[in-house]
Amino acid sequence: MLGTTFEIEPFFFSSSTNWIPSRYQEDAKAGYGDHITVTLPFICTMRKSGTRPESISSVGSVTSQKFAPPMLEVLEIHTQAPLELTHEILLQDLLAIHMVRTRDSSTIISYHPISNLQKTSARRLQSLVQRTGNNVYWSKLFKKSRDPTFVFLTILWYALYAWDETFEALYWHINKLESAVLVTDIINLTRELYKVQAYLLHYQRLLQDFRKSVEFVRNTPNPAMDCDKDRDNSADLLVREVDNLLSELSRLEGFGTQQSDRLKKCTWLAFATVNIEDSRAMKRLTEASMRDSAAMKQISYLTMVFLPASLIASVFGMNVVEINPGTRETLSHYAEATVTLTVLTAWLVIAMQTESSFWPRGSPWWRRLVWPIYFVAGLRHRPTDKQQRRGSNVTMTGLDLV
């Protein structure tokens, strides 16, 4: 390989460094070969330190465990950042492959971002491609066809396996969330449900880009195979393998849709549980208020029993000449003072109101203070019932004339 040079479109490096899904073909020459490029972000899993894989027995007993939703303090949802689950961390990885397909040989050039996390490195990808040759199924397939596109397909299968592990981890995590919603009414669980739902929507979009990349490989045959005697047989094998890959993608897409529906229903269940608890609390408050109301009624009835006695005691305690001879005050003085204070209180109460039917809206303070004058003047100018009937008769007569 020393001294070998390739003309690669700069867009391969720009889309790879920016994690932009892309797929294209260049420098296609019939009977010679071409260059194909696929840049595909996908999701892989990384196990947390000190955790063990999930089992059916451990997940089945989650209802008796106390669930603590992770990362509830996060106020911003960044779907391209790692998603921390109970035992795993979901990372966004990149598969950037540029393949030079020629008649005699093929070359794979891959781009790998620098990261401290356990993402796919160049050494790991090279090791996986080498192990493919030791696989019984793929070794027989390589013997039947010389098309290097099958090697490209094996790399796409690696991304599919990573997706399969991702959805398996999501499955167990969603199971724990559902169990936690069933046994508790923590409102913070809805935040975790919404966060996982947002990540799942992002994953579904990445799966759509994955499908487009696989269809691109199927619709972009190798021009170097035009002169091969087994061209038709190789093309049929390629279509079959691509269909197998698309079938697995359909399975993952259906699984993602199912998990999204589960999250929605789980969110509705959480809100329904909170609403039921609120309804129970309101019922208890209503019953308590009704009991208080009954007690107030009893007190009111008791007060009404003693009200006549209180009134008689107040009347006989008055220092008026009609009741207590020798005093100067009379019942007429008492009535005058009571009526005067009552009228003055009513005048001040109505004048202090901001809105009333005794004056137009927005009236100044002096207009509100003299409201009795305008009220009496309005009563004097109001037409009587006889005048209103006479006016209505005149109107009807005018209508009959028209």
TrEMBL record:
Cell compartments where the protein resides: Cell membrane
MF terms (GO), sorted A to Z: cobalt ion binding; cobalt ion transmembrane transporter activity; magnesium ion binding; magnesium ion transmembrane transporter activity
Alphabetized UniProt keyword annotations: Cell membrane, Membrane, Transmembrane, Transmembrane helix, Transport
Segments crossing the lipid bilayer: 299-321
Record-linked SUPFAM superfamilies: CorA soluble domain-like, Magnesium transport protein CorA, transmembrane region
Membrane disposition: Multi-pass membrane protein
GO cellular component: plasma membrane
Similarity section: Belongs to the CorA metal ion transporter (MIT) (TC 1.A.35) family.
Protein name: Uncharacterized protein
Protein source organism: Pisolithus tinctorius Marx 270
